[in-house]
Amino acid sequence: SDWLLIQELVLELTQGMQIDLQMNQPLETEAELEQYIYYVAGCVGRFWTRMVKQHFGFAKNWGSEVETLGETIGKGLQLVNILRDLPRDLKKGRCYLPQGLLERRREWIKRAREYLNAYRPYCDFYPWHACRLKAVVRLPARLGFKTLELLENSDAWLNPNKIHKISRRQVYQTLLVSLF
Questions:
Q1: Half-sphere exposure of 12 (CA within 13 A, CB side)
Q2: Exposure string for 84-123, b = 16+ CB within 10 A, e = fewer
Q3: Is the pTM of this model over 0.85?
């Protein structure tokens, strides 16, 4: 059963890679962006949830709403990556945000936050003793929030020479907080 889930994941990730390889102009619509972030990360969140369902008794009866939350978290993380890497992608002639929507930075940051906020109800499905499993979800989500904060407060968001990166110390602090 793990093999079938892995096979499905690889097929979906491959679709994301195909979109990436054909990227020679900005995506045209928000629907295309949604499709892309699903294929490169949303499907991973869904896969993770299905693996937990298969291997942990507490998750056996999780419904599709938990898989949707996992997908949403993955899409949020990918949107954070797109926003963070945008200046360097633009320099290379790539743009994952639909044409005409590039100027709406605050809206994209808000959407990424909304997606990442799915980690809270998602983690509520885990029992109290599944600390490490919850940390695996909390850590990237919280690092995503910190990255969005850097982007939101940056005057040099579109400067390709400015890399918005969380300090190693902040990563370790976030890891500790995520465990508890």
A1: 20
A2: bbbbebbeeeebbbbeebeeebeebbebbbebbbbbeebb
A3: yes
Report the distance separating Cα 47 and Cα 8, nearest Å.
Answer: 9
Structure-token pair, residue 126: 């885990």
Task: Give the CA distances from residue 174 to residues 114, 132, 142, 143, in Å, rounded to whole numbers and listed in that order.
Answer: 19, 14, 7, 7
Cβ–Cβ under 8 Å, residues 70 and 46:
yes
Q: Which tens digit of pLDDT belongs to each residue from 80-134?
A: 999 999 999 888 888 888 877 667 888 999 999 999 999 999 999 999 999 999 9
The percentage of the chain sitting over the pLDDT mark of 90, rounded to a whole number, equals 71
> Using CA atoms, how far apart are residues 47 and 112, in angstroms rounded to an integer?
20
Distance CA 53, CA 9 (A): 16
Q: Please answer whether residues 108 and 97 qualify as being in contact, where contact means their C-beta atoms are separated by less than 8 angstroms.
A: yes
- CA-derived radius of gyration, the chain: 17
Contact assessment for residue 109 and residue 146, using Cβ atoms and an 8 Å cutoff: no
